[in-house]
Amino acid sequence: MRLAARPVGLPKPSDWNFTEEKVVEPAEGQLLVKVLYLSLDPAMRGWMNDAKSYIPPVGLGEVMRAGAIGKVIASKHPKFAVGDEVSGAFGVQEYALSDGKGLIKVSSKLAPLPVYLGTLGMPGMTAYFGILDVGELKEGDTVVVSGAAGAVGTVVGQIAKIKGCRVIGIAGGADKCEWLVKELGFDAAIDYKSEDVKKALREHCPKGMDVYFDNVGGDILDAALTQLARGARIVICGAISQYNNTTPVKGPSNYLSLLVNRASMKGMVVFDYADRYADAAKEMAGWMMAGKLKSREDIVEGLNTFPDTLLKLFKGENTGKLVLKVSKD
Amino acid sequence: MRLAARPVGLPKPSDWNFTEEKVVEPAEGQLLVKVLYLSLDPAMRGWMNDAKSYIPPVGLGEVMRAGAIGKVIASKHPKFAVGDEVSGAFGVQEYALSDGKGLIKVSSKLAPLPVYLGTLGMPGMTAYFGILDVGELKEGDTVVVSGAAGAVGTVVGQIAKIKGCRVIGIAGGADKCEWLVKELGFDAAIDYKSEDVKKALREHCPKGMDVYFDNVGGDILDAALTQLARGARIVICGAISQYNNTTPVKGPSNYLSLLVNRASMKGMVVFDYADRYADAAKEMAGWMMAGKLKSREDIVEGLNTFPDTLLKLFKGENTGKLVLKVSKD
């Protein structure tokens, strides 16, 4: 799936170009991967813009960048053998050639493969380092997370519960909210589609929030700013409400609350923690084994559905990690 | 000078009520102060609004709150004697009764009295703790300060120079900019009234800024956000461009630059550092004696000019600390 045009607003079918090409045999030092599962992430929208960011944009005509899980089907690389299960940035395609750089071996014996794109993948790492390092989480903190039913939000909230915090999630829809509380053990959830978020935050956080983990930006970030505790930490992880804007990003009008409350707002990019991924994954796998951390994936089948399936993220239709199943395991 | 009405936008003469009353003798435990100099601060505008903040608003009909320097002219307080020079929140009036709480003795033998409202007063303390503690200043940093010719900005920039940083000031007008560079030793100054701030920042900070100390908010904050270095710290000290808004505060549209650059934005209130004021003042007085830190006050005479003189702050007409001289020393 190649990027055909720079989208304006929500990506349209015509922004994509589906091409079929012969699968090439790996050269010396390369391996060929059959892609099984693709990770669909809000950040993809940013990669489609021709703008300077933490990673270069995807070029027009290039295969769309995507994290993925695959199986090695041919190898002339000393470290990878046919049958190895691997995680890497294979892109939105059925087969990928790789020189092995950045590839991580995974195992379907330890966890279902899609989990390596969610809780044990980038979203899980983002949640782990975002809430623990950037958010400087302490036991007893009141924690609020937006996009709470998404791949990052579900893990943020559960880690905060594991660490002895009170956790309030903000998500869209009664089903998601019920699931957050009943299944994931959140203390409360606010349905931004039917509730007044500012008022609900006032009720659920009468003493203010100590950590606010923001995945959405826009009006919800502004509402959160009205309910900070003294010394609160805001983690800026994303702003999905703003990614498809055709007008300028909505800046947080209430940012002077940072001053009044001696609070901070800090941005993060998960790649900075790459040298600690392995330790984090080990700890998170332990929590999963102990039943303290639940992983949920929202799996859609068929590479051809990619243009539509990606939109589920921006429409808030996914619960848990959105994964595209490309081929059978 | 009493607050007569909650101002909408810039305070008007009719928002004030000038009253004359008999001066009362101090009761047991009280002292009477003759007010000599009043501190005029941007924060005063916030105190006039009926809104929750870091300090309660001034009530309608109450004497306007103001920091001031005065001389004790009558005392029934064991710790203060007639003739003592004192700093305290005496308010916009000629005489003030005090119970001694929060009063600090000063001395015109060590520094001219108005300096205790500026470089050795709240603005100086704000600059000191803001740039050193909140801004986590390091030698070699590129530092940008807005409102650079104001009471806080002048001190921020000079402290950063003392600490071995490159300092760029943003101020309004060629005179102020020239003064910042020639008199205060800033490396460069940007005149926001005649220059494109974003473009000028790109030229003066080709590698981005490590610390941005913001006194103004609005478009200048947004311009600064486009030019952050990796790991930059933004100190939110004030937002003078927004204090007289009749529309909502302009949130920083470019705040996602915090994410891309792993940067932070942190608010501060100087009162939190009260237990360290004395040490800071000692160090700053040392720098002044050594000629490394210059203090400038913009002194206007006459209590009756208060409503107009206050507006100089919001029109950017002051250079250095704006002080109202009430009575002769």
From TrEMBL, chains A, B:
Organism for this UniProt entry: Stenotrophobium rhamnosiphilum
GO MF: oxidoreductase activity, acting on the CH-CH group of donors, NAD or NADP as acceptor
Top-rank taxon, per record: Bacteria
Keywords: Oxidoreductase
CDD domains: PGDH
Ranges of residues in domain Enoyl reductase (ER): 9-324
This protein's name: NADP-dependent oxidoreductase
Pfam families membership: ADH_N_2 (PF16884), ADH_zinc_N (PF00107)
Regions that span the bilayer: none
